[in-house]
Design brief:
single chain; mainly alpha; 12 helices; elongated
């Protein structure tokens, strides 16, 4: 009964190509330890934020050092909104950031570079694993140089993505509609919302295509990566909406205020990494990328002629017995003849 049900389910899955592809992708994702690599990507993502924050503080220090009026205005706002000793401590922290901006910036850049190399190496290893590539072992220097170029390329792709996202979130569309006097047309808000969503998906899609197709150690097909990246981009936009709702809920409690941001960041990075890796598994298990398993040739036939020399033990015993009986008969006949 169980075998019949299993065979019926397999036939139903095979009759639907998209479902069959989904099952293959899920199996490949689990075999290639997708969750394990997603956790590693999350760790390096969180680790790289600290030097990036140092770079951000240094950049803010340089900006404030060249704009004393802005620095004075910021310190005044701190005193107005946070009175008491805490406001004074924050102002001291701002002054320290301005004075030590160079050293903090250098240390932050070095740390960000080191953490970024670890992050990109782990990400490339995870994507390569999902493509089930057998990568030859290269020298350490060549691998790190390749990681640096991959990190720079991903940075360019993310810059393009952020540009498209900024274009989607800005009021450029509404300004254009005002110029042609269509800002009060019926349904204009729906059109702007849909256009912003499409631009956001396109921005995410551009980054995911680069990650899925160009970050693995060996070249892969761009067509499959593009299709998988579109699925991942749509799933990521849905996840962003869910994550924003989650953060709003979790930050309302006292524990959420203390630990919510870091926990939310880790959850967001982990789910995002799983989306990317599953999309890569989807691309790797596409029909155009499924290679037939090689069948090893049979072992060569070895012909060994067997030549038996001499006589077997049974035959020798039989002939010995026959000879003994014959000798006994001949001896008896000879004795009778003498008599």
């Amino acid at each position: 009964m169980f075998d019949k049900s299993k065979a019926r389910i397999e036939r139903a899955v095979q009759a639907r190509p998209w479902l069959d592809h989904l099952v293959r992708a899920g199996g490949s994702y689990n075999r290639q330890r997708g969750n394990y690599y997603a956790a590693g990507i999350t760790y390096f993502t969180v680790l790289s934020l600290f030097p990036l924050l140092m770079v951000g503080f240094a950049a803010a220090g340089f900006v404030l050092s060249h704009n004393p009026h802005l620095l004075t205005e910021m310190q005044s706002k701190v005193v107005e909104n946070i009175p008491g000793s805490l406001g004074g401590q924050l102002n001291d922290l701002i002054n320290t950031a301005v004075r030590s901006r160079t050293s903090v910036g250098v240390i932050g850049l070095v740390g960000a570079f080191y953490a970024g190399l670890g992050w990109i190496a782990n990400l490339r290893a995870a994507l390569t694993e999902q493509w089930e590539q057998q990568v030859p072992q290269g020298d350490w220097l060549h691998t790190k140089i390749s990681d640096v170029f991959s990190l720079v390329g991903l940075g360019v792709a993310m810059a393009v993505s952020l540009g498209l996202s900024a274009l989607a979130s800005s009021g450029l569309g509404l300004d254009l509609l005002r110029r042609v006097h269509l800002d009060h047309a019926p349904g204009v808000n729906v059109v702007l919302t849909v256009a912003s969503l499409v631009l956001a998906v396109a921005a995410t899609w551009a980054v995911f295509v680069w990650m899925i197709a160009r970050l693995p150690r060996l070249p892969v097909t761009l067509t499959s990566a593009g299709k998988a990246a579109l699925i991942a981009a749509i799933a990521f936009e849905i996840w962003k909406q869910v994550a924003s709702f989650y953060l709003k809920k979790i930050l309302t409690s006292p524990a959420g205020v203390a630990f919510g941001p870091i926990v939310g960041l880790m959850v967001f990075a982990y789910i995002t990494a799983r989306i990317i890796l599953f999309a890569t598994a989807w691309a790797a298990t596409a029909s155009e990328n499924m290679l037939e398993a090689p069948v090893p040739p049979p072992a060569p036939a070895v012909i060994e002629p067997r030549v038996v020399a001499g006589m077997s033990t049974e035959g020798g015993a039989l002939l010995f017995g026959a000879g003994a009986v014959t000798a006994a008969l001949l001896t008896q006949l000879r004795n009778r003849h003498r008599r």
